[in-house]
Design a protein that fits this description.
Length: 415
């Protein structure tokens, strides 16, 4: 069963919560971070992207940047921009997008659960990206940013959350610049915190990394590192845990993650369409954007027109958790055999566009000459993600996109 416990969160005063909270470090570059943080001296980006306070051209992975992050983290606490709660607590973090709200429990997940596969993964990680977050955690001795987890919904947990949000004013409640709502409740009642901890321990056999595989891996590795360096290790130290927001699976939606290709591997548009007919029913839609409406249906934008591609029977295996995925069908029936794009992680002939940007972004890239064709996919379901994680398999690269992104800074976990 999953070990998830309350912790003494480090949090901002309500008055500055909107300005302090920021998008995750990995959805922007240094220049974009500097623009977002401009005029906001209390933005957490001064810690998570501390290079914005360093001389231009400073290596983002340099000791200078990590030291600046530590300096700013200390300063935020000295100025009471971040204040630690006196007692260990759970927190509720809710997000609203397009009229739909999802409610997560912020708690401290156990590093041991990651290594024991109680926390299940569906993506591979890259060591260099893990190392960057490990270094920041070493320097600050804190999980500055949360990771995004899911679990199979437990009615008793849902009921507790529902009662709290109906009867208690949110401690933070704001709409961010991107139009997404963020709502946050501190659970002060000791018996409620104890009950939640017991429910996770008895009703939640596994949790699942939805978004933030690198930060999760980094946090778990730091826990082992600190354990090995502490001769008096007991297992109860805060470094044995890391901060995650746990959302029930029935509240989450995955949005589409689409592909654009730079060339047609020497084929003309007409030749590509003829080759596609081997594995797909191909229907020309015309100039109007077409969005797939079901699994195994794709749309393609090519030479000014949209096409509906419906995968033929036999091109996928409904009994194979990986083979049934639309990203797999596209790779095995189009990208690899026709376009000779084999390794999605390393090929420079393909790029990926999150569905949050809309299919108009795909059209824009092709019409602008940057890309030759675009392929839009029906979103992977959360059930597919959980099934793959349970089977021990790994999803193909760039399969899932979650939105809204968790805002960093509403609560921090000191280790």
């Amino acid at each position: 069963m999953a070990i998830i416990k309350p912790f003494k969160g480090l949090r901002p005063p309500k008055a500055i919560s909107k300005d302090l909270a920021c998008l995750p470090y990995d959805v922007m570059n240094s220049e974009e971070a500097a623009v977002i943080a401009e005029g906001k001296e209390c933005s957490l980006l001064h810690i998570t992207k501390a290079e914005i306070d360093c001389p231009a051209g400073t290596d983002v992975h340099s000791e200078t940047v990590y030291n600046k992050a530590v300096e700013n983290f200390k300063m935020f606490q000295e100025k009471d921009w971040l204040v630690q709660d006196d007692e260990a607590k759970f927190y509720i973090y809710a997000q609203t997008m397009d009229g739909r709200t999802q409610y997560g429990i912020v708690g401290a997940a156990a590093c041991a659960d990651y290594h024991n596969e109680i926390i299940k993964k569906h993506e591979l990680t890259r060591p260099e990206k893990e190392e960057d977050r490990m270094v920041l955690t070493r320097y600050t001795n804190a999980n500055i940013e949360p990771v995004f987890f899911s679990y199979r919904a437990v009615p008793e947990i849902d009921t507790i959350v529902e009662i709290i949000v109906k009867n208690k004013e949110a401690d933070y409640d704001f709409v961010a610049d991107d139009g997404f709502g963020h709502h946050f409740w501190v659970i002060n009642d000791a018996s409620t915190n104890k009950k939640l901890e017991e429910l996770f321990d008895t009703k939640v056999p596994y949790t699942y990394v939805a978004d933030g595989h690198h930060r999760t891996a980094a946090a778990a590795r730091i826990g082992i590192e600190k354990q090995e360096n502490n001769p008096n290790h007991t297992g109860n130290e805060e470094y044995n845990f890391f901060m995650a927001v746990h959302f029930p699976d029935n509240q989450l939606e995955i949005i589409d993650y689409n592909r654009v290709v730079k060339d047609l591997n020497g084929l003309s548009a007409e030749e590509l369409i003829e080759k596609l007919k081997t594995s797909f029913e191909v229907e020309k839609i015309g100039v109007d954007i077409y969005k797939p409406v079901k699994l195994h249906e794709f749309s393609m934008y090519l030479a000014g027109d949209w096409y509906k591609l419906t995968a033929k029977a036999g091109t996928y295996d409904d009994n194979d958790p990986i083979g049934v995925l639309d990203v797999t069908i596209l790779s095995k029936q189009v990208l690899e055999p026709i376009l000779d794009i084999v390794d999605l992680r390393t090929s420079d002939r393909i790029d990926f566009v999150g569905g949050i940007r809309g299919l108009g972004e795909l059209k824009k890239r092709v019409d602008g000459g940057l890309m030759k064709a675009a392929f839009a996919l029906y979103p992977t379901s959360l059930k597919q993600l959980l099934d793959i994680a349970d089977s021990g398999n790994i999803m193909p690269p760039k399969t899932t996109w979650f939105e809204p992104k968790l805002r960093s800074g509403l609560v921090i976990h000191k280790i």
